[in-house]
Amino acid sequence: MSRAFRVTGARRGGRALISLTPLIDVVFILLVFFMLASSFTDWRALDLATAGKAVAAASSAEGALVVRVRADGALDVAGARVAEADLAARLADVAPERRVAVQPDAGVPLQRVVTVMETVAAAGLTKVSLVRGAGG
What we know:
The longest helix has 17 residues, at 21-37. A hairpin with a 5-residue loop joins β2 and β3 (75-77). The chain has helices at residues 21-37, 54-61, 87-92, 110-122, and strands spanning 49-50, 65-69, 75-77, 80-82, 100-104, 128-130. The chain is an alpha/beta fold and 136 residues long. The protein has a domain at 49-130: Nucleotidyltransferase, domain 5.
């Protein structure tokens, strides 16, 4: 009595098929996880000295180079009108240890003030203060 030796589960003449669906699912879940866990915002801090009271703000502007941001978009540096393109060149002549007071008028958008402050910082001036404008 001879019995034929038979292996069950073996396939004739080929490889076992591996499904890619679980691998794709794991990669997709990892992609979603890392997208939700990461932050794409570039947070940058501005070094800023602010005065607590209006009297202190006026005294902090004394002796400082005042850069006034007007509501109509114009800029004044020490009382003289300056184009925005010429602001960096005008500030390049200022000594790095000199204080600069940025004074926005009432109604000036915050982004405009931040852009002016970044220009001041890019010119190498580190002592920057934000003072309250005449309009509050």
